[in-house]
Specification:
45% of the residues lie in helices and 10% in strands. It is an alpha+beta fold. It has 2 domains: 9-69, Molybdopterin biosynthesis moea protein, domain 2 (Alpha-Beta Complex); 78-279, Orthogonal Bundle (Hypothetical protein af1432), CATH 1.10.3210. Helix 5 packs antiparallel against helix 6, helix 13 (256-270) runs antiparallel to helix 14 (282-292) and helix 14 packs antiparallel against helix 15 (299-313).
Length: 366
């Protein structure tokens, strides 16, 4: 079939989704067997078959599908974040939340575009704040490693979402986003050899890392950022039970920006690959937030986050530890780490022996 037909687009296998219609036969890697025939409406079984036996591209049909993919910036070689930038209010709809989390896997340049546009929108509302200086503070995190840069963007967006869930005024949501972007900027003053040490660090090294909250605070002060932002970055490691740092604040004595950022920080950190820890599933992150509620984390913020994120994850396809793909069917509050999934048309309770690893498909079919 001709590639010059404007209604067709080549699509990587990892972007297949349930309900997509393919326009030509899809063959196994050795081209001997037809895995899916032309005209097939993809379901989980078909996607699993393609994933196991073919690592190439497929061609999908329908101008409507192509338009959807273009609008979501999925078929471009250098994706744009325009669909998120236009929504400065940090959307709370479940598909938008999941789409953002999935899109975190794309290129650093696209992520930088998101930071640039989001920070500019917020800085335009603030007096005596230099946009370029704020951008440089975030970009310097790249000198330490990809994790801190990616993590800061995730925390910023999650902070904004939580702010919307809590129905906070726009000025507070803006402050939360800046806190998320800048909460770890002080780590640029901590030796990279300590931050990236592939071993257990010493007590003295941990004390050096703990200084990053104070450094971040000082850097935000230097940029004349609002006091709410300065205090948020200073207090994002305070714990609800008073055992955090730098000031051992407890309960609601911890500013709300710090309490919200602590939840976003935990969720993002658990789901990210780091030097000394492998990434774990969103369900593991939710379980840890639940366990930490009332101890390290604000119980109200934790509950709102768990409730809304759980609803957002239901119905989404996940890669399983055995290589299959399953749909999330139900997430029980008393066992958040191991949801029920639909696997090969059966309802299955996940466990340590069969667990969800990560989102497999983009949320286009929900």
């Amino acid at each position: 079939m001709s590639e010059q037909n404007d209604s067709l687009v080549h699509l990587p296998i990892n972007l297949l989704y349930i309900g997509m219609v393919v326009t030509q036969n899809i063959y196994s890697g050795d081209s001997r067997h037809v895995l899916v025939h032309a005209g097939t409406i993809l379901d989980l079984t078909a996607i699993q078959r393609i994933r196991r036996h073919n690592n190439g591209e497929i061609v999908l049909v329908s101008p409507e599908i192509r338009k959807t993919l273009i609008e979501r910036d999925i078929v471009k070689s250098a994706p744009s974040w325009s669909h998120l930038e236009r929504q400065v209010g940090y959307p709370a709809a479940k598909d938008e939340i999941i789409e953002f989390i999935e899109l975190m896997a794309i290129t650093g340049e696209a992520k930088m575009e998101l930071v640039r546009n989001t920070a500019r929108n917020i800085c335009d509302k603030l007096a005596d704040v230099n946009f370029d200086d704020i951008l440089n503070m975030v970009n310097k995190l790249n000198t330490i490693g990809d994790y801190l840069f990616d993590h800061s963007i995730e925390v910023a967006f999650l902070n904004g979402i939580i702010g919307k869930w809590l129905e906070l005024p726009e000025s507070q949501v803006d402050a939360l986003v800046l806190v998320g972007l800048l909460h770890d900027c002080g780590k640029t003053r901590v030796p990279a050899s300590v931050l990236n040490a592939p071993r257990n660090i010493s007590i003295l090294e941990f004390e050096a890392i703990k200084m990053h909250a104070t450094y971040s605070y000082e850097m935000c002060q230097d940029q004349n950022l609002p006091v709410e932002v300065q205090i948020g970055v200073l207090n994002h490691h305070e714990k609800y039970n008073g055992t955090g740092y730098p000031d051992n604040l407890s309960g609601e004595d911890i500013p709300l920006t710090g309490r919200i950022t602590a939840v976003s920080d935990m969720y993002s950190a658990i789901g990210s690959h780091r030097i000394h820890k492998r990434a774990r599933s969103p369900f593991c992150a939710l379980a840890n937030i639940h366990k930490s509620s009332g101890v390290e984390l604000d119980p109200k913020v934790s509950k709102i986050f768990i409730d809304n994120m759980s609803r957002a994850l239901v119905g989404k396809p996940f890669s399983m530890s055995n290589g299959d793909i399953a749909l999330i069917d139900r997430i029980d509050y008393d066992d958040l780490e191991f949801p029920y999934v639909i696997l090969d048309d059966d309802l299955v309770k996940t466990s340590k022996g069969l667990y969800c690893e990560g989102l497999y498909l983009r949320g286009l079919s929900g």
